[in-house]
Amino acid sequence: MAMVRELPVDERPRERLLALGPGFLSNAELLAIVLRNGSKERSALQLAQDILSLYKDDGVSALGRMTAGELMCLQGIGSAKAAEVMAAVELGKRLNAHIARQRAMVTCPEDAADYAMPRFRYEDREHFAVILLNVKNRDFCWQPDGFRGASPGGVQGGNPAGGGIHYPGAQPSQR
Fold first, then answer.
1. DSSP secondary structure string, the chain?
2. pTM, whole model, 2 decimals?
């Protein structure tokens, strides 16, 4: 495959994005734009295809779980490019979570799951989160990493009913 600069202008990812919009680009083209440039041997588009092929069964969603170490295992991807990819992915996660929080009205367990899913979708272990609601069932305080000061418990232990669960640092959500 040719280097991006050798492609006709109307086939280059950045120019295609500006002319047609991001919806018309492949995942590899979008990722190539994030990478900005390639290496001596590989174009940005080839590097993007290499990244996406690491977990080809998972597709683009695998980017949400990739570590810097996994990215840097690829020839042509150093710490700077790995950081760029991870920063872009994190921005996408935060945008998705922000949109979910703005629309959220929690009236059932499914609503709570929809609310929390953008934050936890790509995690590889379970997390405990607390969503405190106001009287209109809207987000008052979101504690995605759980809370401090609760008595330990689980399926076989703990009794939160003895005074309730209290999070002393609860602050209204920042919007």
1. ---GGGS-GGGSHHHHHHHH-GGGS-HHHHHHHHH----SSS-HHHHHHHHHHTTTTTGGGGGGT--HHHHHTSTT--HHHHHHHHHHHHHHHHHHHHHHHHH----SHHHHHHHHHHHHTT-SS----EEEE-TTS-EEEEETT--SSPPP--SSS--TTTT----TT--PPP-
2. 0.61
